[in-house]
Amino acid sequence: MASRLTWIVLLLALAIYGILTKPLVLGLDLQGGATMRYELSPPDSTPENVDIDDMIDATVDTLRDRINTYGIRESAITRQGVNEILIELPGSSKDEAESIKSAISRVGHLEFRIVMRGDGRDDDVQTRVLIADETKRLAELLAATENTGRPVDDLDLSSLEIKTPDALYRWYPFSDKYLAAARGADATTTEVDIEALLTAQPLSTSDFRFIKRDLAAVRTFTGADIVNSQQTMDQSGNPAVSIDMDPSRASEFGDWTEPNVGRAMGLLLDGRLAEQPATINSRLENNFIIQSGGVAGFTSAEIKDYLTVIKSGSLQMKPRLLFENTVGPSLGETAISAGVSASLYGFLAIIIFMIVYYRTNGVIAAICLLVNMTLLAGILMFLGATLTLPGIAGLVLTIGMAVDANILVFERIREEVSRSKGVDQAVRLGFEKAFSTIVDANVTTFVTAFILYKVGTGPVRGFSVILMMGIASSVFSVLVVGRVFYDKLIQSGWTGIGMRQLLKRETHIGFMAKSRVALRISALLVTASLVAFFQADRDKYGLDFLGGYKAQVRLQDTASQSDMSEAVGGRFEGAQVISVVDDLGSSGTSSKQFVIKIKARPGEIDDDNEDGTALEDRFEVPLKTALSDRILPDFVTELTLTEDAEGATTAISGVLNFEAPTDPAQAATPEKVAAHLGFLSNLTTSQAPGGAIAVGGNWARIDLDNQQVVQRLRVSLAGSNDLPAPSEPFLESTTIGSRVGTELRDSAIRAILLSFIAIVLYIRIRFREYRYGIAAIVALAHDVSITLGVVALAHFSGLVDVEIDLAMIAAFLTIIGYSLNDTIVLFDRIRENLPRLTNKSYSEVLDISINQTLSRTLLTSMTTLVALIIIFVVNYGRQNVLEGFSFAMILGVLVGTYSSIFVASPVLVMIHKKHGDLPTNSPETKGGSKKKGGKGQPGGVPA
Q: Which of 905, 913, 910 is nearest to 934 (CA)?
């Protein structure tokens, strides 16, 4: 016991350490954010000797750099499969997601420019461009400006510009990567907090370079003029970067570089110095190299940086959007509230029941559950695993399975006490006899969760991770922690193993006598369910499998569901409009929030369209038009951009819209907004109708698109405590291409088939026979079929927001695990009884076994149903994944409890009789010889 206690203390200490020191990582469905999936297509003219895999890696690096420039922290870009990438942007809004999509699809603006040296050699006395004087002016501006912690782009440097007839001289900052490196940070990580670094060490003149922009088009060279770039060697054999210019511009490039030999040339990417300037050593034309001034040449990291910057000017591979999902932060907060409330209520209900029913034993179960939750939370945080909305459901299911294990032990102890065993012996035998059943039941569920993790995606994988972790912590808590508490109580002289009794001390129900009728009823139910499922229209499938568009929109005023259906149906035939329960004026007949589902018809979404934004254009833009007089306005409306190429500025005008402030003192005013928009020169702000603010000004950037400007405005106002939140018309939006839907459907089918195969193999190993596995699979097929039919009917009736999608597949796999748990418990008892009850027929052994485990079966089903019903009630009408998930799980628990008795057991008898494996002394063979083919062993159990 001492060693067990040591392990408990050690694991609890590690768990508490993880909870106190590690943050809880929330999934995008809980904290809000955006997920995008792109396919990367190589250019048609790809040379044969080019490695496509390297091109994809380079493109991923390029996209990562572009996204990082938007200041979105903890973004994740990962490769999926051969030529796809997944982009996850935690905490990002719809506007931010649109900005990232724009950055991905557009060509970055890369420029070659001359960098003025500060030693006086580049001074132009005639035009009075004196670098020392300009540096002094910059230092004075930085000293006079409150720039501590502010983004560098917020600085208005327009007053320091010098314009001559031929050129524009302007200060340009280095990229955030170099600003971070100059302050001692690791610039290679995507989690550098540049604002914190600039707060500790404000901007100085060394963070900028004075650059000459030639105004003549013939002396302007951009990324579009680059044909190829790659790693090469310089004259000394050191690593360098080779650049091939477009032959049509090679001569002009030479004419520009020749008079600038000896001067520094810089690479500007989207208005920032992306690399340290390089010296021009000779006339450069169609091919030239950029080499390091160091003895050993560039490092591999420097080479990679240079190539990434150059290729950012023109993506090598065209990204094509396949899938997009955006969840607003406010919707995430609502999901957390509903999910946590459901979990807490379910947990408390189960704890109260266990203590009332099992008394002191229930207190031990409660302690085990608390230890289980602590261990699970510690593992979750220590490993940095992500908690998703389905993951919360996994937590509740973990509680139910942990309670099941406790009930198995308690019922075994009760049986031993009824046999006049002492407390010490009853506890020991109770744990020993429950051990194999608990392990078998949990391993089979673990197998289905593992398969779900391997073939699932996104939040569904989060559910499987929580379930696997929960199974491990539950088994440890019950078998180790629970046993230690019992041992301590027994050592102190405790003898009060009193428990309430759900059923009579012994039941003698003839279940097998009713099995023929039950099987006929089941066959009818399965047939009716499958007919209902296959006869239902294709709308029973979710967007995951059909492709299409889903949005949760917010309106300016409440509207009825019929009015919204009419407005949306006029543009999208067959669109589904569902009102959402909220706290902002919703009632039984009207709401300010609606979920709109537009499922793609066959051939409607063409994934071969080369336009990466085609999916959005097909749905979101027309939807906004259809609801233009109802939906909340976007954060920025009436946006216009007017570019001044010579002045290298863009005039911006637009209207900023905000949420209704909860505190009148927080209302938006022109003065408050102006205080946050320092990156605009000649700034004007004025009040507009509806609490909006009209904004105008100049931004020292060119080649901008609308989304870049919207994102820049959003970043400037982010975190302001004196302004309401930006207007958010879309709380959630999802766009799925048809090919992605097909892949998700196929992976779901594979998951179910693989789980069936794995279950049969495991049961074959544990029970040494296939018949148990076959009987279990028949019962599982029965459960899934009936649940499918009821789900299809519920969807048709509209009473529950439930569809066949990825979350529902997770529910089905969980039903498989739960139903199998029930069946395994019964099969273990049958296996235990067969060698002892040699004077009973096989059917009688099954009846005895079912009666012995009936109390446990009903108690486990009741406690699990309590947790699931609470989840369903709390989330009903919220149109989130837990509503349909919990509804399917309730069906699965009810049907699974029934099938373990009236389907799995009768099928086992049928297989047994077919093979003639009957005991020689059973009533079915009394007075006669053993049937042909019999193994001559009790119940057919191998020796």
A: 913
Please provide residue 315's backbone torsions phi and psi, each rounded to the nearest 5 degrees: -60, 135
Dist CA 536 CA 541 (whole Å): 10
pLDDT at position 72: 52
Under 8 Å between Cβ of 449 and 471: yes
Confidence grade of residue 927 (pLDDT, cut at 50, 70, 90): very low
Cα-Cα-Cα-Cα torsion 163, 169, 171, 176, nearest 10 degrees, comes to: 120
pLDDT for residue 327: 73
Dihedral, CA of residue 133, residue 134, residue 135 and residue 141, to nearest 10: 110
Contacts of 539 (CB under 8 A, 6+ apart): 574, 576, 599, 795, 803
Q: How big is the CA angle at 789 (ends 825 and 739), to the nearest 5 degrees?
A: 105
| Direct distance between the N- and C-terminal alpha carbons of the chain, in angstroms, rounded to an integer | 35
Check: CB of residue 517 under 8 Å from CB of residue 693: no
The SS3 of residue 664 is: helix
Residue 805 in contact with residue 544, Cβ under 8 Å? yes
| DSSP annotation string for 386-416 | EE-HHHHHHHHHHHHHHHHHHHHHHHHHHHH
Residue 797 has pLDDT above 90, yes or no: no
Mean pLDDT in residue range 339-354: 80
Q: What is the 3-state secondary structure (H, E, C) of 58-118?
A: HHHHHHHHHHHCCCCCCCEEEEECCCEEEEEEECCCHHHHHHHHHHHHCCCCEEEEEECCC
Q: How confident is the model at residue 393 (pLDDT cuts 50, 70, 90)?
A: low
Q: Determine phi and psi for 672, rounding to 5 degrees.
A: -65, -45
Return d(Cα 433, Cα 415) in angstroms, integer: 11
Note whether 373 and 476 are within 8 A (CB): no
- Which among 190, 207, 357, 175 has a CA at the least distance from the CA of 271? 175
Q: What is the DSSP string of 349-393?
A: HHHHHHHHHHTHHHHHHHHHHHHHHHHHHHHHHHTTPEE-HHHHH
Radius of gyration of the chain (CA): 34
pLDDT in tens, 807-864: 787 777 777 777 877 888 898 889 889 888 888 888 999 999 999 888 888 888 888 8
Pairwise CA distance, residues 779 & 785, whole Å: 10
Give the pTM: 0.66
State how far Cα 640 lies from the chain centre. 35
| Strand 110-115 with 162-163, pairing | unpaired
* Lowest mean per-residue pLDDT among 181-195, 268-282, 842-856: 181-195
Residue 913 tokens, joined: 């009789």
Q: Which of 542, 633, 552 is nearest to 594 (CA)?
A: 552
How far apart (Å, rounded) are the C-alpha atoms in residues 81 and 607? 17
Q: What is the DSSP string of 268-327?
A: EETTEE-S--EE--S---SEEEE--SSTT---HHHHHHHHHHHHHTS-SSEEEEEEEEEE
Please name every residue paired with 735 in a beta bridge, in sequence order, or none if there are none.
324, 549
Closest CA to 609 of 265, 321, 868, 205: 321
Extract the tokens encoding 622: 């027309």
Of residues 339 and 314, more confidently modeled: 339
| Cα pseudo-dihedral 110, 111, 114, 119, rounded to 10 | -30
